[in-house]
Design brief:
Mean pLDDT: 90
Oligomer: single chain
Number of helices: 16
Strand order of the largest sheet: 4-3-5-6-7
Low-confidence stretches: none
Helix content: 25-40%
Strand content: 25-35%
C-alpha cells in the first residue's frame, strides 16, 4: 500500500467527513484529496518527476498536510523541515538530498530565500500563507500557493497516473548524526505503512476517533498522527504547538477528542494546571507519550485528570519509527519500562560480538521488521553500521545504538546510548553541531556539549565552556547566540563555566565527567 492511499481510501469512503481541523477551519476528506491532486498535477506540470525530493518547510497547517499527500501523489519524496530551522541548516538539507522543490510559507520566506540560492538542485519554490515573500526567489520557478492550486490550470486538474510502488521512497526524515551533520533516514511506503498499521493495532484506532495533536509535523511522532488518522478515516485536530496548554485542553473538550499524543514536557505542564476537573474529558480514550518514561507523579496526575484514558508509554527512533509500547495495565507493575515490541516486530539484545544476551544483561537493542528504514541517504558507511545481517539469510536488521536490558517477560528498559548523541524531547541532538555554534563566539576558547539526565526531557543539553582570557560572557548571552543558529530543542538548557576541561593523555575531552552535574540553567 502506498502512503497516499491512506487519504484516497478515506476520501472514497467518507468524502464529506471532516478530515482535518486547523486554525478554526475544517476540511473534509474530499477537499483534502482534491487539493492534493491539484498540487500533484501542478508539481508535475512544472517539471518535477517521480523520485524527486520536495522539502516541506511549514508550520502545522492544512498546507503542510496537503503538501505531504500532493508530493506523494506526484510520485515524489517529501522531507519535512522544522519551521524553526535556520538558513544554514535548511541549505544543508536541500543540498544533501538535492531537493528539486521547496514548499514554504511567506512568514518563513526570509530563511527560505537565504537558503534557496545555495541549493543548485532547486527548480521550484511554492510560497503558502498570507503575504508575499520578503525577497524574490531568483533562478527558480516561484509560485504562490493559490497559483499552484489553480483549478483552471489543465495540468492541475488532469487525472494522476499511479507511479510509485511500496518499495519506493516516500520520505526522508533528517535526524542528528554523530559527525555533527544531520542524516537523512530513508523511509519507503512499505516502512511507513507497516509502522502505521502496527501502532494503530495496539491503539485500536478507528474511523470515529478524533485525535488532537500539537506535535510538529517535522517530528516523526507528529507526522504519524496525520498518517494514522487519515489511514483510519478519523478526524485530526491539528494545533500549532503546546505554547498555550490551557487552550489545548479547551480544544480537547470542544472537539470531543479521543486521542491525545504528548511528550513528557507537555505532561509536566498539564500536571501543573490545578483548575481542571476530571469530568470534563469523558470522550478521551487514550494518551500516548514517548521520548522518556513518564514520571510516576505525572502518571498519577494524568490518571486523575483523564480517568477514561488509557496511558501508553512508548519508545522509538526515526530509523524505524516505533519499537515498543508499554500496555497501560503494566504502568504500575513496570513504571521504568518502555514496554515490549510493537505488533509484527521482533526485538532482541546483543553483546559487542553480536551474540544474544539473556534476561537482565545489558547490550545493544536490535530491531527486526518491515518498518526498519531503507538506510541513510547516501551514507553507505553509516548505513552499514546501523543495518547489519539478521538471523535469517539475506536480511538486514537495525542496530539502534541504544543500550538496553530485557526482563524475563520481554519488557525493555533503556540504559544509555552507545555514542554521544543526546536524545531530548524525543529528538536527537549532535553535540558536535551545538559545539560548532558555540565556537562562533570569539569569547569561547573551549566547549563541550553533553547530555545530562532530566526527569521530564529524558536528557537535557548541557554546554561546558572555557572563556578566552580577559573576556566575559553570561549563560543568557550564550543561549541567545545559540537561538540564532539552532532549533529550540538543541539550545543548551544548562551552561557551566570552567577554567579548563578534563582531558586524557591524548588530549581528548572526558565528557563523562562533565555530565555528572547539570550546571547553571541558561534560562
Amino acid at each position: 500500500m502506498q502512503v497516499e492511499e491512506f487519504l484516497q481510501s478515506s476520501a472514497s469512503r467518507f468524502p464529506q467527513k471532516t478530515a482535518l481541523v486547523c486554525q478554526g477551519d475544517r476540511w473534509s476528506y474530499g477537499e483534502v484529496d482534491r487539493l492534493s491532486d491539484r498540487l500533484a498535477g501542478s508539481l508535475k506540470a512544472r517539471g518535477l518527476h517521480r523520485g524527486d525530493r520536495v522539502a516541506i518547510f511549514l508550520d502545522n497547517s492544512v498546507e503542510a498536510v496537503v503538501s505531504i499527500f500532493g508530493v506523494l501523489k506526484m510520485g515524489g519524496v517529501f522531507l519535512p523541515a522544522s519551521p524553526s530551522t535556520k538558513a544554514d541548516k535548511l541549505a544543508y538539507l536541500l543540498n544533501d538530498c538535492r531537493a528539486a522543490g521547496l514548499i514554504s510559507d511567506a512568514r518563513l520566506s526570509g530563511v527560505a530565500s537565504e537558503a534557496a540560492p545555495r541549493a543548485p538542485s532547486l527548480r521550484l519554490v511554492i510560497s503558502a500563507g498570507d503575504g508575499r515573500p520578503e525577497r524574490p526567489f531568483e533562478g527558480v520557478q516561484a509560485l504562490t500557493w493559490e497559483g499552484a492550486l489553480d483549478k483552471d490550470t489543465p495540468s492541475a486538474a488532469a487525472p494522476l497516473s499511479k507511479s510509485a510502488i511500496d518499495i519506493d521512497l516516500a520520505a526522508i526524515l533528517y535526524t542528528s548524526g554523530s559527525t555533527g551533520f544531520p542524516k537523512g533516514v530513508m523511509m519507503t511506503h512499505l516502512n511507513i505503512a507497516t509502522a502505521a498499521a502496527s501502532i494503530m493495532q495496539y491503539l485500536e484506532n478507528k474511523e470515529d476517533d478524533v485525535v488532537l495533536s500539537a506535535l510538529p509535523l517535522s517530528f516523526d511522532y507528529g507526522l504519524y498522527q496525520v498518517l494514522m488518522a487519515f489511514k483510519a478515516g478519523a478526524t485530526l485536530v491539528l494545533e500549532r504547538s503546546f505554547a498555550y496548554p490551557q487552550t489545548i485542553l479547551e480544544r480537547l473538550i470542544e472537539e470531543k477528542a479521543t486521542g491525545f499524543p504528548i511528550v513528557p514536557t507537555v505532561a509536566a505542564m498539564i500536571c501543573r494546571m490545578k483548575e481542571w476537573r476530571s469530568d470534563r474529558f469523558p470522550h478521551l480514550r487514550y494518551i500516548t507519550s514517548t521520548a522518556a518514561p513518564l514520571a510516576p507523579a505525572h502518571i498519577s496526575r494524568l490518571r486523575s485528570l483523564f480517568p477514561t484514558a488509557k496511558i501508553y508509554s512508548m519508545y522509538g527512533l526515526t530509523e524505524c519509527k516505533r519499537v515498543s509500547y508499554l500496555p497501560p495495565e503494566e504502568l504500575d507493575v513496570r513504571p521504568a519500562s518502555v514496554g515490549r515490541a510493537i505488533p509484527n516486530t521482533e526485538v532482541y539484545i546483543v553483546d559487542e560480538w553480536g551474540a544474544r544476551v539473556g534476561p537482565g544483561e545489558v547490550g545493544e537493542l536490535v530491531v527486526r521488521g518491515a518498518h526498519v528504514m531503507k538506510g541513510y541517504w547516501e551514507r553507505e558507511e553509516e548505513t552499514e553500521r546501523a543495518l547489519k545481517p539478521g538471523p535469517l539469510p539475506g536480511e538486514k536488521v537495525l542496530y539502534t545504538g541504544d543500550l538496553f536490558r530485557m526482563d524475563s517477560d520481554g519488557y525493555l528498559y533503556f540504559v544509555a546510548r552507545k555514542d554521544d548523541i543526546i536524545k531530548t524531547r524525543g529528538e536527537k541532538v549532535s553535540p558536535k553541531e551545538v559545539e560548532a555554534v558555540l565556537y562562533r563566539l570569539p569569547e569561547i576558547a573551549e566547549a563541550a556539549v553533553v547530555g545530562v539526565q532530566d526527569e521530564v526531557l529524558g536528557q537535557a543539553v548541557k554546554a561546558v565552556v572555557v572563556l578566552t582570557e580577559g573576556t566575559r560572557l553570561t549563560a543568557q548571552e550564550i543561549s541567545r547566540h545559540c537561538a540564532r543558529y539552532l532549533e529550540e530543542f538543541m539550545i543548551p538548557k544548562y551552561v557551566e563555566f570552567r577554567e579548563g576541561l578534563p582531558k586524557n593523555a591524548n588530549g581528548k575531552i572526558l565528557k563523562a565527567a562533565l555530565a555528572l552535574r547539570p550546571g547553571r540553567s541558561a534560562e
